[in-house]
Amino acid sequence: MNLLNYTLKYLSIALLLVISIWAVLFYFNMIDEVQDSLDDGLENNKMLVIQRVEKDSGIIQRSGFSEHNYEIKEVTEKSGLKFKDKYQDTLMYTLNEEDMEPFRMLTTVFNKDNKYYEMKVVSSTVEEDDLVRSLLYSLIWLYTAILVSFFVINHLLLRRIWTPFYLLLKRLKAFRLDKDQGIETGRTEVKEFKELNAAVESLVAQSVGTYGSQKQFIENAAHELQTPLAISLNRLELLAENEDLSDQHLEAIGQVIGTLQRLTRLNKSLLLLSKIENKQYGEVALLSITTLTKTLISEYEDFAALKSVQVHLKEEGPLEVAMNKDLAAILISNLLKNAITHNIAGGTVNVSIGPNGLVISNTGRSVALDPEKVFKRFKKDSQAQSSTGLGLAIVKAIIDLYGFGIQYSYTDQHHLKLNFR
Amino acid sequence: MKLLVVEDEIDLLEVIRQSLEKENYLVETAGSYVLALEKIVSYEYDCILLDIMLPDGTGLDLLAELKQMNKSDNVIIISAKDSLEDKIKGLEMGADDYLVKPFHIAELNARIKSVLRRKSLNGKNTIEHANVKIDLDERQVWIDGDELVLNRKEFDILSYLAVNKNRLVNKTALAEQVWGDYMDGADDYEFIYSQIKNLRKKLKEKLAGIEVQAVYGIGYKLVVA
Predict the structure, then answer these.
(1) How far apart are the CA of B65 and the nearest CA of chain A, in angstroms?
(2) Per-residue pLDDT averaged across B104-117, rounded?
(3) Rounded to a whole number, what is the distance in Å from the CA of A403 to chain B's nearest CA?
């Protein structure tokens, strides 16, 4: 439920309550007024009738209302003395409605020639059920009219007032920490929105700054590690050239060199990842993925042979993509390396290239991998000890950089599907 | 042959010096712009290894000085800055080659020798060890005047090892040289072995005076038998 409808919901409930209470009060007030004025009229009638009685005593003999609005009958002195004027509601038969209708009746007693007469004066009054019904209808109309107009005003006016808010929301949704440098907020006159915009802007600026310095730190660290690593390796190689060393010593040096090389590879991969994420591979050219893949497959021939893995290429159409040459080579070679490394002896790697993308499928462990985790950093097969666990993370970084798509799926083989469009 | 190494990182300078001395070069070193300039002005070198980032100046300025003095010393720039602009600038200013740090010593050796070969008389780009002659331009190998047919990878391995004769060339350096940069991370480079095996067989069949030795899981070296 959005904000506008939310306010409308509570407002309609509150309005219903207020209108209902008001209606009850209004009704009783009105009835009171009506009776008051009827009673005044009856009082006046009473006095008129009594005046007439003074002049024309004949009418005293009348009984029943017939065409008049009063009736007079004689009462005993005893009851006449005790009597006080009395107003009451009553029902009488009316000809036009052919039904009993409500009447207001004044019962009074007067004295003429030492005789007491009781007189009833009536006046037609409002039909309460009719009044209630018509009041109810009016109120329903009023209620609806208020709600509808509120709804319309809300949508026209409030929507305009809330525009900066929705704009900010839209921009926040589209915001990517790794892509955007900051967030732009719309101009607004509303104080709350101004504060919100300022708060969001500073929060975003802070996050972008932190993210940037963290990325920078990784890159710097990897960069600074390069030379010491290279020097250590060089020194060990110089040491290994020493003629006096025994085979055992050489073997030990070889092991240290192996470990240092793994570290170097890891460091290189981290540096590469940072560089990709920091967009340091600018130069873009249109290149043929097919040609590149062929070249790389031939470079990986020996590696595949060592692993007893067959690599097949299937061309379903030419594939040309505008991207950085080095990154394209890294992308394809990482995929190939990955497919060959995580394979079984006698297994296969099938690369098929179509006009829109590339699918690389390989045999391997017959368990599907978690598609969520495949591209995570340092997510690696425990059996492949020397792998850095960064190969597919680098692939994903390159894919993300260019806005391409990649999906992992498993049938009887592991498939990675690249979409370059 | 007299070389000058200009590098402010003392550890690296030392490793390069030790390694080059094994090749029987006369190696002098300079750790700063001022020291390097002094040496450049006073002496002639066959090859100068020049770091771009120095604490008191840049290698590119040294290169400019050198050219202004009309010296014909060969220059190989070594720098951690692997940006293309630096590379182009250095080469435009007259450097003979450009090597990005960190590099393998074997690679440095190969580059230095290549520069020196180009400089030396008749400009023939060949290496000769024992009865084996390798023509790097024509990509041909002769043993006692008999041509030895090698595939691309075998030739690359042989020539790289031959340039670094008697020196240990580690597997990573060899793989990067022969299989390209994108092979790194592919296991322990065990796949090199099958090519080495073929190469050894061919050398042996033709009774070559050189052989490829394996050095304990570290790499290979070419020695005169």
Answers:
(1) 28
(2) 89
(3) 23
Nearest Cα neighbor of B1 from B66, B64, B48, B69 is: B48
Chain A contacts to B (CB-CB under 8 A): 223, 226-231, 233-235, 237-238, 240-241, 247, 250-251, 253-255, 257-258, 261, 264-265, 268-269, 296, 299-300, 302-303, 305-306, 329-330, 333, 337, 340-341, 386-388, 391
**Which CATH fold would you assign to the domain B124-224?**
Arc Repressor Mutant, subunit A (1.10.10)
What token pair was written down for B96? Answer: 């003979």
Q: Which residue has the tokens 């609005």?
A: A69
For residue B182, list chain A residues with Cβ-Cβ distance below 8 A: 296, 299, 329-330, 333
The answer to whether the Cβ–Cβ distance between A254 and B194 falls below 8 Å is no
Total CB pairs under 8 A between chain A and B: 108
Q: pLDDT for A139-162, tens place per residue?
A: 899 999 998 998 888 888 877 888
CB within 8 Å: A302 and B195: yes
Question: Encoding tokens for residue A5?
Answer: 């409808």
Q: Quick one: pLDDT at residue A265?
A: 85
Point out the residue among A227, A250, A303 whose CB comes nearest to the CB of B12: A227
A327-355 burial string, b = 16+ CB within 10 Å, else e?
bbbbbbbbbbbbbbbbbeeebbbbbebee
**Closest approach of A421 to chain B, Cα-based (Å):** 25
How, if at all, do strands A320-323 and A357-362 pair?
unpaired
Mean pLDDT of all residues in A162-185: 83
Q: Do domains B2-121 and B124-224 have the same CATH topology?
A: no
Side chain identity at B34, as an amino acid letter?
V
Of A226, A299, A388, the CB nearest to B185: A388
- Check CB contact under 8 Å for B101 and A230: yes
Contacts of A230 in chain B (CB under 8 A): 12, 101-103
Query: Backbone phi, then psi, for A200, in 5-degree steps?
Result: -65, -45
DSSP string for A127-170: -HHHHHHHHHHHHHHHHHHHHHHHHHHIIIIIHHHTHHHHHHHH
What CATH class is the domain A168-280? mainly alpha
**Class of the domain covering A285-419:** alpha beta
Domain positions in chain A are 3-149, 168-280, 285-419
> For chain B, which residues make up each domain, given as ranges?
2-121, 124-224
CATH number of the B2-121 domain: 3.40.50.2300
Q: What is the pLDDT of residues A321-342, one digit of tens each?
A: 999 988 999 999 999 988 988 8
pLDDT (tens digit per residue) in A22-53: 999 999 998 899 889 989 998 998 888 888 88
